[in-house]
Specification:
2 copies of one chain form a homodimer. By secondary structure, the first copy, chain A, is of the alpha+beta class. Chain A is built from 5 helices and 10 strands. Chain A folds into 2 domains: 2-105, Alpha-Beta Plaits (2-Layer Sandwich); 109-244, Alpha-Beta Plaits, CATH 3.30.70.660. In chain A, strands 1, 2, 3, 4, 5, 6, 7, 8, 9 and 10 form a 10-stranded mixed sheet that branches. In chain A, 41% of the residues are buried. In chain A, strand 8 and strand 9 form a beta hairpin. Chain A has helices at residues 27-37, 73-84, 139-147, 197-209, 217-224, and strands at residues 2-10, 47-48, 57-67, 89-95, 109-117, 131-132, 151-154, 169-180, 183-190, 239-245. In chain A, helix 1 (27-37) packs across helix 2 (73-84) and helix 3 packs across helix 4 (197-209). Chain A binds chain B through residues 9-11, 57, 59, 77-78, 81, 85, 88-92, 119-125, 127, 240, and chain B through 9-11, 57, 59, 77-78, 81, 85, 88-92, 119-125, 127, 240.
């Protein structure tokens, strides 16, 4: 048996998310079905670094699968990509990780990017990959609000009420807001995230950007330690799971 | 009657191109149908700066329509966008141009961008917006080949045999090749282009990038003034009509 670390890209539209669900097709299901083809048809389990929600994209998800024999990693990548056609999931790289490597628990940093299309007209070119906010957002105010969230905090106000993590405490390493023309780019990095944490942060900063909230209210919301104090959840479309870091690097 | 200049974005997938065709839906048809709704149902003709091919995208196409009355440009933009739903076409801006303005003939510069995804795995996130080339391309060699094409030349070797332009002579103002990770970005600018000119140039530079052609053969192909001497036509997916310039600016 050989353990393979996979670097995976997918278009979240049309999937119910990473994890298997009864109500639709998941990324995990597509990957596991392709892996089973390399296992004589017997089931193969895939473990991922993060369970992205329905509609959320990935440019750098990572996963672990175990296959019989000792196929070279590049052969495994090519074979999985062949069998995953025409689904919008591809393995970018495959590698043989250290014996104790776990895609989820070995991760030392994760990075997400959220895109807001901030203009009157709805998206034609980027439909499904951005949150369309027609009214002008003040990115300087959003950045001011964001500063209150960076660091080691209890993020109860920004996690889904259904979040199953034992602790609501996380360390946000960075949270950057920048504008590139009509697009506002939010870059978020942490060792790990709570369920809906990025989307709840973005939904809250949007309130600051449109002037509904003063930037300081972000600090008040954080201190309240209550989901009711945080802003709404931004839609999944704008979110992309960009990178998972390991020490040492796997790929 | 009021003349409106429109700045238009569209996703070329699913369209037979800008121009009306009998075999499918065109961008022109979607725009003209929406404009007719603002004209009591009577037909409205739209003239564009460039007739993009099937599958080619636009971030900055321009067009002219004439409507009765004197609706403010922003009202026209909003009304057209409302009526064009759910097609992947939107008016980004509307403006009232000078009386003698023509979107095609008044243009002083046009800019196209072509994206090549240069990696083993097929695209999952950017399907339909890139040309997938699995084998490594040498962008320095491509840039060397490109230098032979910049300037005032007879581009017979790089225009579609069906091209209806009277003269094959054009001035290519710039042709830049750069790499951003797995993506190769080709930026091309000229006052005007011949039919398939950008795609034929990209298809040729790909031969140079993969090593099938020495860079100098691009000069030989250009000098031959024969379509048979040029490289193949790159697929439409990677091409986006970025910008049309006017003096003075309209938008």
């Amino acid at each position: 048996m050989t353990r393979y670390a996979l670097l995976i890209e997918y278009d979240g539209r049309g999937f119910v998310g990473w994890q298997r669900q009864v109500n639709g097709i998941s990324v995990q299901q597509v990957l596991e079905a392709a892996a089973a083809r390399l296992n004589g048809g017997a089931p193969v389990a895939a473990i991922a670094a993060g369970r992205t929600d329905a509609g959320v994209h990935a440019a750098g998800q990572t996963a672990l699968i175990v296959l019989p024999g000792d196929l070279p990693p590049n052969r495994v990548r090519e074979a999985l990509n062949f069998h995953m056609k025409p689904h919008a999931v591809v393995v970018l790289q495959a590698a043989i990780p250290p014996d104790d490597w776990n895609p989820r628990f070995s991760a030392t940093r994760r990075r997400y990017r959220y895109l807001i299309l901030n203009r009157r007209a709805r998206p034609a070119l980027h439909e499904g990959f951005v949150w369309h906010v027609p009214n002008p957002l003040d990115t300087a105010a959003m950045a001011e609000g964001a500063r209150h969230l960076v660091g080691h905090h209890d993020f109860t106000s920004f996690r889904a009420s259904s979040c199953q993590a034992k602790s609501p405490i996380r360390t946000l390493d960075h949270l950057e807001i920048r504008r590139d023309g009509e697009t506002i780019i939010v870059e978020v990095g942490a060792r790990s995230f709570l369920h809906h944490q990025v989307r709840n942060i973005v939904g809250t900063l949007k309130l600051v950007g449109e002037g509904s909230w003063p930037a300081a209210r972000v600090a008040t919301a954080l201190a309240a330690r209550s989901r009711a104090a945080g802003g709404p959840t931004a839609p999944p479309d704008g979110l992309c799971f960009m990178h998972v870091g390991y020490d040492p690097d796997i790929f």
